[in-house]
Amino acid sequence: MAMPINVTSTSNNMDTLSRNELIGFINDSLQLSYTKVEQMCTGAAYCQMIHILWPGKMPLKKVKFNAKLEHAYIDNWKVLQDCFKRLHIEKDIPIQKTSKGSFPRQL
After folding, report:
1. Torsion sign (Cα): 41, 47, 52, 54
2. How far is residue 107's CA from residue 39's CA, in Å, rounded to a whole number?
3. Which of 28, 41, 60, 66 could form a disulfide with 101 if both were Cys (CB 3.0 to 4.6 A apart)?
4. What's the confidence (pLDDT) of residue 14?
5. pLDDT by residue (tens digit) across 15-74?
6. Rounded to the nearest 5 degrees, what angle is found at the Cα of 78, between the Cα atoms of 74 and 84?
């Protein structure tokens, strides 16, 4: 019989756990292979998730899935934010910060 292991929760391992859970969820849901949250800075994965949750509400034709430059990332985040407004989701996205791969805790 396996013995239970004591686990201590700290802000460091909770942050890492949350990031790992997010990456795992996104990878499983969208069949991706991200290894870091920062890889989601293009905004495309978030747009795909909204498309799954609200089919037909996200204009996927406007999403730049192969974006490599920050200005293209910003365009994707603006598409997401516009969709949020249409869906009456009151969440302001810090586009400049997020498009640089700097993810705020509240995102």
Report:
1. positive
2. 14
3. 41
4. 54
5. 556 888 989 999 999 999 999 988 999 999 999 999 999 999 999 999 999 999 999 999
6. 145
Contacts of 42 (CB under 8 A, 6+ apart): 64, 65, 67, 72, 73, 76
Which residue in the block uniquely carries the two structure tokens 């890889």?
39
DSSP alpha helix (H) spans, the chain: 11-30, 44-53, 70-86, 95-98
Alpha carbons 61 and 102: distance in angstroms, whole number: 26
Q: Which residues contact 86 (CB under 8 A, 6 or more apart)?
A: 57
pLDDT band at 96 (very low <50, low <70, confident <90, very high): confident
Mean pLDDT of 96-107: 69
- Distance between CA atoms of 80 and 93, rounded to whole angstroms? 9
Sign of the alpha-carbon torsion through 40, 107, 93, 55:
positive
